[in-house]
Structures are given as structure tokens and as C-alpha cells.
Amino acid sequence: MATETNPLTIAASHACWSCGDMRAAQFCTSCGKVQPPAPVDYFSFFGLPRKLNLDNATLERGFYAMSRKLHPDLYARRDSREQSWSLEQSSRLNDAYRTLKDPIRRTEYLLKLEGVELEGQSKAGTEEARKTGEKKQIVPADLLEEVFELNMQLEELRANKKMGEEDSSLIQELQQHKQQLEEKFNGLFEELKGYWTEWDSAEESENDALRKAACDKMVDLLNRRSYIRNLVRDVNEVLES
To answer: Can you give the pTM of this predicted structure?
Structure first.
């Protein structure tokens, strides 16, 4: 069962390179020497359980505490190994903090730890699909009718613009449609937070079946969220062209 620990005392399986005592992920708890980066995930790096409802205040305190101890100026007169390790640890600290403090990135990162890659939904994947004409994203079932209607409106507006015509009523309809999509997009975040609670409860009880069910729900929601985000982008592009 995962439990929260102090972010500066993450137990690791390696001994300190300097004094030989058991080291933490970033520093030796006995002699205080900076340690070579350990292969731990971002949650473990901060001494946090692998849960999605994080205490932002705890995360922030851990970040600033480690930032002060890893500041490059502290290692300016140390040997080259310690200078290099402090830079690597500092870089990993910044990456971990940026990822965990952002609720969507945190969710995607946890899913990645669970073996789920959302490549088809990434910005790079979306741009590549647009270049090749290959559609990688499947239209969510609950959006089929809405997407069909929206695509028809977008094609009509593109055709009007090519002919130099302007249909104010069509533009107004698309703007309203865009607003509805944005409301759905924002609403999905509240739904996602409910799945965080499901995941955290399953993680606490070490229930693999419930963990998988929560993962599946989060993946489906993030796919829908990504699809809606891309629809809004498409509407903006046509309206602004």
C-alpha cells in the first residue's frame, strides 16, 4: 500500500557513494551529499504515493526545498561529479514538478506509468495526421451526430469564403457550436476528477481490477477531450481564415 513520505527522504536501494550509508533519491540522509540520479518515477522523486488527488501545497514545498539544496551555486567548488549530478537532479526536479502540478499532464504521466501511451492524441501525432490526411482519432460515439453537422457547416463556410461570400448566420451558428464544445471540454475536467478518486481508492486498496477500470475511463475521457480540443481548433481556423 502506497504511503506518503517526506520528499527529502525517499528510500532507495543504493548506498551513498560518499559515506556508504543508505541514500535518498537526491541526497544522502547521513552525510548530505548529492547523489547520482536514481531511476524513480516522478511521484517517488517527491516521496509521494502514486495518486492523482495530490496536495499541491505539499508538492510545492518539496519542490522549493529541493531547489534550494540543488542550486548550482552550492556545487561550484565541488568535484565535477557532484556538479554534474546536481544539474541532472535539478533538471529532473523541474520536469517532475511541471508534470505533477499540471492535472492533465499528471494524469497522462500516470497512465504512461501504467503502460498506456496516448500517442494518437499527442500534438505531434495530430499534426502528422493532418499532413498525411490520415485520421488517427476515432470519433467518440456520443459526438458522431454533432461532428457530422459541424463538418458540414465548416465545409459550407470554407466554400463561401473561397467565393468571397459571407453568411453571418452560418458564422453565428459556428460560434455557438464552438461555445458548446468549449463547455463540454471544460465539463470533462470535472468528470476526470471523479476518476482520480476511483484510481486513488483502487491504489489504496491495491485492487488491480478497479485500477484497470479507472485507467480505461481516464483514457476514454482524455481521448474525448483531445478530440473536442481539435474540433475547437478547426472551428477557430475556419472562422479566422
So the answer is: 0.80
